[in-house]
Amino acid sequence: MNQDLIARAQHTLETQPFSILLGTKVTKMDGSEVELSLPIRDELKQQHGFVHGGVLAYLADNSLTFSGALALLSNCVTSEMKINYVRPAIGEMLHARAKTAYSGSSQAVATCEIYVVNGGVEKLCAIAQGTIVKTS
Amino acid sequence: MNQDLIARAQHTLETQPFSILLGTKVTKMDGSEVELSLPIRDELKQQHGFVHGGVLAYLADNSLTFSGALALLSNCVTSEMKINYVRPAIGEMLHARAKTAYSGSSQAVATCEIYVVNGGVEKLCAIAQGTIVKTS
Amino acid sequence: MNQDLIARAQHTLETQPFSILLGTKVTKMDGSEVELSLPIRDELKQQHGFVHGGVLAYLADNSLTFSGALALLSNCVTSEMKINYVRPAIGEMLHARAKTAYSGSSQAVATCEIYVVNGGVEKLCAIAQGTIVKTS
Amino acid sequence: MNQDLIARAQHTLETQPFSILLGTKVTKMDGSEVELSLPIRDELKQQHGFVHGGVLAYLADNSLTFSGALALLSNCVTSEMKINYVRPAIGEMLHARAKTAYSGSSQAVATCEIYVVNGGVEKLCAIAQGTIVKTS
Fold first, then answer.
1. Using an 8 Å Cβ cutoff, are D56 and C81 in contact?
2. Cβ–Cβ below 8 Å for A43 and B21
3. Is residue A19 within 8 Å of residue A13, measured between CB atoms?
4. Between B43, B47, B54, which is nearest A61 by CB?
5. Which of A19, B131, C61, C81 has its CA 20 to 30 A from that of B82?
6. CATH 3.10.129.10: does it fit domain C2-134?
7. For D8-44, how does the pLDDT look when each residue is reduced to its tens digit (9 = 90+)?
8. H helix runs in chain B, sequence order
9. Does D42 touch chain C (CB under 8 A)?
């Protein structure tokens, strides 16, 4: 059943042209917890060879929205968020893991940790917090 | 001379593969104020036909970095930022305008407003604030 | 009339026991722009003799709420905010100036700059951004 | 020994006049995790009888600083933070629990959850994230 939920979330993700352009996958779901994964390729980098901060902000935004939508059981958007970049993202894979800290009748507050996998070793590279609101 | 500054900033932007993938241009510079512009195309959208929040967060991140770098006269990265999405971004063009509110010896705090142009009418769609730090 | 608006806002502020404890005054109002002022005294400081960051965060929170309430024409609360402290607040007076960047049917996004006056010279010491929502 | 650490942290807190004015206590410490507690009294409230958002922001700021200082083993200040208020704080006691998600050579990123205790029942009322930097 969890595989079925992941498949449905992946289907939603694939209705986002920008997520297709980047290559994001839904890789885990459990309650309001969701993991989005994104293989690193050169196109996602900035001038120093690290993943661009904008890619990490995209992953934060999207994983927060998914987590909030799971908690609110509704179509949602992220209305605001904050992200701290803590380490250059160098490696082969990104995992963004979001969970909902609070959900009410119309909005949720979720947090997200983004990890980069480099040579099989996973390290925290960003941490985010944001508000997710129902759109319908 | 301002055109020369813009050309140099555009050159820096073009060393970012992710900015090339998205199609961002440096369109104005004046003191620590910088404007990045990005033509909207389908690949940048989410499932409702609006520009993906991750694209706006990328523009905020990048314009904050440019503004801070102009104030700090150094290579810089954005170490953290916060963005509020205030309106769905629907239209043909995005303009992100950042300026530095404070700069010290090693870091700056900058703000950014992102506008969407739809049928020639420009509207605010996001507002951001962040910290920019020297990398060297 | 502006003096009348200020008097009414001051009256609202005085229904907040915490604002009375701190000693905050409404000193300017113009459209959605509002200025709250707070004389610095020892009780508001931290261990290094600067104004405590919590006092600045309180001023940000409160001035954002007032600005949003002026734009939304409703009772409001700040639902979230972000603050950057840019300089130690040393001096005799604080001025928090907030204005609304966007207001919709149920919420507003406002920004705030906090200045400290030291020997008659005013300097930026914090900058904030937040969401204000109607409560009724 | 943990009691000794708490006593030393409490001593530091008591060098902050603003924390004495409010009545904050250090109630737990474990690694980089710290809990600050604040009994609710009328002076800390806003006009609707809830704890003022500025008090919660103060607790977030202060607990983030303490957590970062424990991780960085240095005197520290919070350079920026973001707070989401998720529920009106009504009750008799506030507990702010902060922990450090990342610490480097000169700064740390920490998160904080603030709970209100009402009739013995504890509920989340705010969540925060911020950057803590060494001051010496």
1. no
2. yes
3. yes
4. B54
5. A19
6. yes
7. 889 999 999 999 999 999 999 998 899 999 999 999 9
8. 2-13, 17-22, 53-72
9. yes
